[in-house]
Amino acid sequence: MDEKQFRAEKMYGASLFVAKSMLKKGVISKEEYEKIDTLLLEKYRPMVGALLAGKSLT
């Protein structure tokens, strides 16, 4: 994985963490969270993140 791809993975993960926190606090709905996830996947195009998209790790 090169530096550019590593940065994309890191930015996707950090952004999704914020969105997930907002979802848990009730700030956004499940539908809004899913839309955010889709937009982040399009923006950052993470390899690892794309494999885990939509899957709960807990």
Explain this structure:
With 58 residues, the protein is mainly α. It has one domain (3-47). The protein is 74% helix and 0% strand. It is built from three helices and no strands. It has helices at 3-24, 30-44, 47-52. The longest helix is centred in the first third of the chain and has 22 residues, at 3-24. The mean pLDDT is 88.
Concise synopsis of the structure shown:
The chain is mainly alpha-helical. It has helices at residues 3-24, 30-44, 47-52.
Sketch the topology as an H/E string, one letter per element.
HHH
Q: Could you describe the largest sheet, including whether it forms a barrel?
A: none
Helix content range of the residues, please?
over 70%
Average pLDDT, rounded to a whole number, is 88
Q: What shape does the CA trace take?
A: elongated
Write down the Rg.
Answer: 11 Å
* Uncertain stretches: none
Structural class: mainly alpha
Helix count? 3
How many extended strands?
A: 0
Beta strand %: under 5%
Give the number of domains: 1
Give the termini distance in whole angstroms.
Answer: 26 Å
Descriptive labels:
single chain, 58 residues, mainly alpha, 3 helices, 74% helix, elongated
What layout of secondary structure does this protein have?
Layout: H1 3-24, H2 30-44, H3 47-52
Helix pairs in contact: 1-2
